[in-house]
Design a protein that fits this description.
The complex is a heterodimer. Chain A is mainly α. Chain A is globular. The two termini of chain A are about 25 Å apart. Chain B is of the alpha+beta class. Chain B folds into two domains: about 230 residues, P-loop containing nucleotide triphosphate hydrolases (Rossmann fold, 3-Layer(aba) Sandwich); about 100 residues, OB fold (Dihydrolipoamide Acetyltransferase, E2P) (Beta Barrel). Helices cover about 25% and strands about 35% of the residues of chain B. In chain B, strands 6-7-8-3-9-10 form a six-stranded mixed sheet, with helices on both faces. A five-stranded antiparallel sheet of chain B has the order 13-17-14-15-16. In chain B, a hairpin with an 8-residue loop joins strand 11 and strand 12. In chain B, helix 2 packs parallel to helix 5 and helix 3 packs across helix 5. Chain B is elongated, with a radius of gyration of 24 Å. Classes of the chains: A mainly alpha, B alpha+beta. Chains A and B meet through helix 7, helix 8 and helix 11 of A and strand 6 and helix 2 of B.
């Protein structure tokens, strides 16, 4: 890398080093430390042999899978409509309307749903918390899908139609394969965010809101066990990293195909 | 494979305030190669979309072999189409691209394989070598062949080509035009070829329609249109031409006369009218452009600029700056009147 190029990265690297890598290193250090001092792996082992944490993890995965599934099902047709059907002049309006809730603070949005639960005849619990997550993470699914679909030439869909494909075949044989990398990107984003989410389950989940994010919170702030709390955080982070790596390889393959 | 006769009746299409097509009627004979030539934005791609079925006309009807298909969706029309960007599916191999139309029709595997093999043979792509490749591993010319093979695999009733060669180098273009002509003859499929390039149109067409502003200016065989263009636009768009103001005895009123470049003759001495020459004017050579077998001379006259296309040997008598006489011959003289025209 040339020196001139390197300069562009200085602010980002400094920022990340101070606010992310350094705290992360401290977290890593705590996770392999015992309160009395000295290094150990027992913090990790405790988590992996604990029925409780495995159950909470399983429950969080279930919530994350459902959230991801529903955001995908809701966002995919919307992205399709915006990219291929909406009149050019209306597109920016629709996109703006779709992401408008994002101008409001995350916590406020979660509270606003809490206020709405009762008039809507819903109760705090599993369904409501998944609903809240779908509502909150929808734009994170929509935007990658929108970007991915925008890179699919409309002529591909036209030619699929001309060659006899109906809606089902166009979707399964052309559109979904060509947008698979953005489906994956959006899904991973939403999955990771909903898997580790703490605020929404806490506010909307009631007794059914105890997720892995909540467990990390409890370890740190309720039990003051920063050692196991760190270990659990590291496990979640490594899981996310692994997912991101797998995804980036997949994305590269699809990008190569599209860029002929 | 068997093509149909395509008939368009009084097709009109508007996009908001823009008129894309205005009362277009056209008859494409069965098995012919019909070229629609026009500048970009003249409505020729809209015309193809209407034949393919993904654009609905505001008025008018489309007939395949006499049957009205106007309301039929594209997937039920059985047309093959090659798009300007080819629209090969980037995530599918050559085999799967060509097989696409057959797969969605639910053809049995064995039949698909045989059909793909036979159309690849038709477009001269080696099955062993290319069937497994991905589109991005092919050259531009090979991609063209795949797109054509995919269009032919479904045994289309009509083959539609939307400027398929606009992104191809000149040398490859010539080769592909020859191939296209051969393939079209062998497959005997009715073909509608849309282009803005007059040399492609000249090379390919059995019949030609020249389009402008959403209407067909003239339809006919290429030679007819070249020799007897109905308007200045057609004359200029299909071949190059000198147009001078002039009056033609017996026709009355002001008109313009046109002479194709290769019929425009030059002389260093003042000619005499008669004996095949109907008129002349003086001018000066301002530019001499080498074009291989011919040399293009650009001239300035009292009636505006003119061009002459001379065989190379003959051109050596003329140099930039020379004063010459430009002769208008009787043969090939084209007269443009307010409306309509004809050979003199």
């Amino acid at each position: 890398m040339k020196r001139g190029v390197r300069a562009y990265f200085v602010p980002a690297v400094v920022f990340l080093a101070v606010f992310f890598y350094l705290p992360f290193a401290i977290l890593l250090l705590y996770s392999i430390t015992v309160p009395e001092g000295g290094f150990t792996l027992t913090n990790y082992i405790d988590i992996f042999i604990s029925r409780f944490y495995l159950q909470v993890m399983g429950y969080s995965i279930l919530i994350a899978v459902l959230t991801t599934f529903f955001t995908l099902v809701v966002a995919y047709p919307v992205a399709y409509y915006i990219v291929f059907k909406a009149p050019q002049s209306v597109k920016p309006v629709i996109i703006t309307l779709m992401i408008a809730p994002f101008w409001i603070d995350f916590l406020l949005r979660a509270y606003s749903i809490k206020v709405l639960i009762e008039p809507l005849g819903m109760r705090e619990g599993f369904t409501t918390l998944v609903y809240g997550m779908v509502y909150d993470f929808f734009p994170f699914m929509l935007l990658p899908l929108y970007a991915g679909m925008s890179s699919v030439p409309p002529s591909l869909l036209l030619s699929a139609r001309v060659y006899g494909a109906g809606g089902f075949h166009i979707l399964t044989r052309v559109l979904i394969p060509l947008t698979s990398s953005s489906v994956l990107a959006g899904s991973l984003l939403v999955f990771l965010m909903s898997f580790t989410e703490f605020v929404i389950p806490a506010l909307l989940g009631g007794v059914e809101g105890y997720t892995i994010g909540y467990a990390v919170y409890d370890l740190f702030f309720k039990y003051r066990d920063i050692y196991r709390g760190s270990a659990l955080s590291i496990i979640l982070s490594l899981g996310a990293l692994l997912g991101a790596i797998m995804l980036s390889r997949r994305v590269k393959i699809v990008q190569k195909m599209l860029s002929e | 494979m068997r093509g149909v006769e395509v008939r368009l009746e009084n097709i009109s299409k508007r996009y908001g305030n823009t008129v894309a097509l205005k009362d277009v009627s056209l008859n494409v004979p069965r098995g012919s190669l019909f070229t629609v030539l026009g500048p970009s934005g003249c409505g020729k791609s809209t015309l193809l979309g209407i034949v393919a079925g993904f654009i609905e006309p505001d008025e008018g009807h489309v007939f395949f072999d006499g049957a009205d298909v106007t309301g039929l969706p594209p997937q039920k029309r059985n047309v093959g189409m090659v798009f300007q960007d080819l629209a090969l599916f980037p995530h599918m191999s050559v085999f799967e691209n060509i097989a696409f139309g057959l797969r969605v029709r639910g053809e049995p595997e064995q039949a698909i394989r045989e059909k793909v093999k036979s159309v690849m043979e038709l477009v001269r792509l080696d099955f062993q070598e290319y069937a497994g490749r991905m589109p991005h591993q092919l050259s531009g010319g090979q991609q063209q062949r795949v797109a054509l093979a995919r269009a032919l695999a479904i045994e289309p009733r009509v083959l539609l080509l939307d400027e398929p060669l606009s992104h191809v180098d000149y040398s490859v273009k010539i080769l592909l035009l020859e191939e296209l002509k051969r393939i079209q003859r062998e497959a005997k499929v009715t073909t509608l070829y849309v282009t803005h390039d007059q040399s492609e149109a000249m090379y390919l067409a059995d019949y030609l329609a020249v389009m402008n502003y959403g209407t067909l200016e003239q339809v006919g065989r290429p030679e007819e249109i070249y020799d007897s263009p109905v308007s200045e636009f057609v004359a200029r768009f299909f071949g190059d031409i000198n147009i001078f103001p002039g009056e033609v005895a017996g026709l009355g009123g002001a008109s313009k006369i046109g002479v194709r470049l290769e019929r425009t003759m030059l002389s260093k001495t003042e000619p005499r009218v008669g004996n095949g020459i109907v008129g002349y004017m003086s001018g000066r050579i301002v530019e001499k452009i080498f074009q291989g077998p011919h040399v293009l001379l650009k001239l300035e006259t009292d009636y505006g600029s003119a061009k002459a296309l001379l065989p190379r040997a003959e051109s050596s008598h003329y140099n930039v700056g020379d004063r010459v006489f430009i002769l208008v011959p009787r043969t090939g003289l084209i007269v443009f009147r307010q409306r309509g025209s004809g050979r003199y």
